[in-house]
Amino acid sequence: MSEKMKNLITRSITGVLFVAIIVTCFMCPEGMIAVFALVTGLTVWEYTGLVNRIDGVTVNRFISTAAGVYLFFAVAGFCSGITPSAVFIPYLLSVIYLFISELYTESKNAINNWAYTMLSQMYVALPLSTINILAFRDYGGQVVYGYLIPLSIFVFLWANDTGAYCFGSLFGRHKLFPRISPGKTWEGSVGGGLLVLAVAAVIGYVENHNADGQTLGAVMSVSEWIGMGLVVVLFGTWGDLVESLFKRTMGIKDSGNILPGHGGMLDRFDSSLMAIPAAVVYLYTLTLF
């Protein structure tokens, strides 16, 4: 068996397992919280390991990762109605500690350390934590867990990647952002976007109608679902480009190798780091949350 075929098989197996885990975890709130808390921890750990390679940068990996995971659990607890807002106090104390600790490290450039440390929270931990806002909704004082909206974010992102690859391979001529990601084309991006809009319309129709065509009291109309699909495509693409810029700045091809054939955690969740919070803003704009 050729090396190329082995890589294709490895990539396919990893991809199937990845999708299966993500889809399955959304079936219950405990599963979603456990999986994405783990994702948050692994991604922050990976990020801090990468930036610590930069000359003059020393980020406390353990505390940064612990703070990021705690933030995820805190947002989950607050959104699900289990914990009060006071749950965020330990997180704020950890952020204060990360600032004050630089007084005693004798670092040559404390500003670099502060900046890269806070970026681990703003770029990774906070965006992933907002998936809890999509999953838990308050109905007149009663918090209800719903898997459809957070799962749809990933369905849209996967559809966008698939459509972009197919359309880009067949029709790609014009580079989308050659300075950062020379493989992406406008044709691929448009094709991916059209596929997502179609998937969003199907989800919206199914959610709004049963087999007899009667309304189900859906969260969003078909047009609102299409609007969210467009938001996810736009910000997901930007998220991909942001991570590509990060890797290009670092001089690396993949952010890690934890996922055989797919690179690291940042490589897998780059689009969602922008798409998830953008979806939250979109839904708040619709006054649905």
- Major sheet: 2 strands, antiparallel
Poorly predicted segments: none
Question: Structural class per helix/strand content?
Answer: mainly alpha
The counted number of beta strands is 4
Radius of gyration: 20 Å
Mean pLDDT level: 90
The oligomeric status of these chains comes to single chain
Q: What order do the SSEs take from the amino end to the carboxyl end, as H and E?
A: HHHHHHEEHEEHHH
State the share of residues found in helices, binned by percent.
55-70%
List keywords for this structure.
10 helices; mainly alpha; lipid biosynthesis; two-stranded antiparallel sheet; 6% strand; single chain; 69% helix; 289 residues
Q: Overview of this structure, please?
A:
This is Phosphatidate cytidylyltransferase. Belongs to the CDS family. It catalyses: a 1,2-diacyl-sn-glycero-3-phosphate + CTP + H(+) = a CDP-1,2-diacyl-sn-glycerol + diphosphate. Its EC number is 2.7.7.41. With 289 residues, the protein is mostly helical. It is built from ten helices and four strands. It has a two-stranded antiparallel ribbon. A hairpin with a 2-residue loop joins strand 1 and strand 2. The model has no long low-confidence stretch (mean pLDDT 90).
Secondary-structure blueprint of this entry?
Elements: H1 3-25, H2 29-51, H3 61-79, H4 89-100, H5 110-129, H6 131-135, E1 136-139, E2 142-145, H7 148-171, E3 175-177, E4 181-185, H8 186-208, H9 222-250, H10 265-285
Antiparallel strand pairs: 1-2, 3-4
Helix pairs in contact: 1-2, 2-3, 2-5, 3-4, 3-5, 5-10, 7-8, 7-9, 7-10, 8-9, 9-10
